[in-house]
């Protein structure tokens, strides 16, 4: 009886081992699933729609196929103003290219006429979107500005810069992550 119990136990263990050995290990490789939407690196950038200064509705998801630099700012932020020449240079370099980098400068809750005057006084021509309620800024955690997201042509966040860029080189290093 004891030998039958041992033999039965051995058979049971053997079948469990064979069963376990034949299992395939899940592969965490790209399986074609869409990345999760969120505001972290390698997340799909949350979609939004805001009006520009001329009243045209701009939707982030409509820009897929081009890299996007998404910056949140205010005129009242001195650091924001300090880095604007870097965005202007990128805008001027890419505006004529059909699939060039798109620049979206999202102003949070400031008056449209003040923004227009600020742009005119400083000769900035990049597109400005109006986040009149601050809701898009909240989605992108723009509690402290400036904050800039570098989004690739597939809509994936590849870099985030908290605070102002200190130099053109600093800006270009982030920009290269979506080129």
Automatic annotation (TrEMBL):
Keywords assigned by UniProt, alphabetized: Signal
Record-linked InterPro entries: AhpC/TSA, Thioredoxin-like_sf, Thioredoxin_domain, Thioredoxin_ResA/DsbE_sf
Pfam families: AhpC-TSA (PF00578)
Molecular-function annotations in GO: antioxidant activity; oxidoreductase activity
The Thioredoxin domain, residue ranges: 39-179
Transmembrane segment boundaries: none
Signal sequence range: 1-20
Record protein name field: Thiol-disulfide oxidoreductase
Protein's organism: Dehalococcoides mccartyi (strain CBDB1)
Taxonomic lineage: Bacteria, Bacillati, Chloroflexota, Dehalococcoidia, Dehalococcoidales
